[in-house]
Design a protein that fits this description.
Helix content is about 35%, strand content about 20%. It is of the alpha/beta class and about 475 residues long. Strands 1-2-3-4-6-5-7-8-11-12-13 form an 11-stranded mixed beta sheet, with helices on both faces. A two-stranded antiparallel sheet has the order 9-10. A hairpin with a 5-residue loop joins strand 9 and strand 10. The radius of gyration is 23 Å and the shape is globular.
Amino acid sequence: MLLIHHSIGQTLLLEPYQFISRAQDTVQAERGTFKVLEDRTANQGDSIELSFIRFKSTNPNPGPPIVYLSGGPGGAASSTAKGDRFSLFMKLRAVADVIAFDQRGTGLSQRLPNCPYQVEFEMGRAINKEEYVEQTTLLMSQCLSYWEEEGVNLKAYNTDESAKDLDALRRVLGAEQISLWGISYGSHLAFAYIRLFESKVNKAVLASLEGPDETIKLPSATQDFLWQIAQLAKDNYGSNTSYPELKTKILAVHERLKDAPATTSYRNRRGGRDTLTFSNFELQMAIASFYLKNPKDSKQIPRLYSQMYEGDFSAIGPDVMVVKRYLFSRLRPMALAMDLQSGISPQRKATVDNQINSAVLGSCINVLLYAWMNQVDFPTLPEEFRQLKPNKVDALLLSGTLDGRTYLRAAYEIAAKFENGQHLIIENAGHDLYMQSPLIGEAVLKFFQNEALQVERIVLKPTIFD
């Protein structure tokens, strides 16, 4: 083990680490650990240990370290690097050291205890939004009490503290600047770092952008995305199967469930058949949770709604079962605390309140989180956190036109704040866009290598609807 002391009073421990991807690719790396204060606002309290994996650069004159920021919140960079982005982690070593940094409470960094309580909802009864709010708010109150009894300081788990952890990483690495590479919540964290430490950013590559005030998605944006799918399905890119009346059918299905719940049977994993009954709210939850994120998900939407329009709800049955039985079987403390403290501005709250009951899917991407924000006494970061001010960071921002999680309309507003930014639109790409085409990885590498990008738009082959 190599022990490195720094004059700032922190100690970085580095040790050799054999990194093995899920595809069994093996590379020699380093694991680093260092400690930070858990709660800087109190300037006291126990230190927590943070961890990262460093892939050493193959460049004899490497640039500032490239730090990967996972989404979620709650994703672990050390885990992400094992998946299909492994090859991109390896390619970026041609520029600089690549750091898979596990944010506080995730991955190889010091973890928090999961809540032992959970809630399931009855299979044989349609359950409305109000009951979900009531039961899950009670669950969260039980979990908050448990974490308090365990001495967990949840308020220390917020995006500003995480941004300060990121700068502590920069300092223990002895780097004047770092480059940021992230996606989804990782961009949310990056925006906080830019607000606090803009001069310390060399470059930033951020995808599927979640702005500082976009933890709660607008119901109208989710509805617009669903109508975008309906429009594309009209001729289905000229294929033999098309859905000319999909919007009408979607509206009809949800109106029908408002009046009367649906009952269906579906094949379970044991090969038998189970029966369940569900409400319009539970259908909204299933669609928003499982069918909007990427084209491989949303390609099923036309077929699903067409079947439901004809009275066949069997295909959606297993997804509703997951909503009822498993969606609230675990509340993860880091993710919950991060989202709650990111909060929502008064202006956005007024907009959500105005839209939530009229949009076809309500606000089901994060409707219960929004309800908890309104009902549970939990601290939030100050309003300045939720304001994205103009900056001069050299940035490449990437957005997919078929991203059903972080929407293109909001991404344009974010990109306008980057005076030295480039906004690359990936047509037909979804939320997890980095590996949806080799062209995207090539653009990321070129940008980090200071090569000019010759395109403002990459067009991928469309995913045909089922």
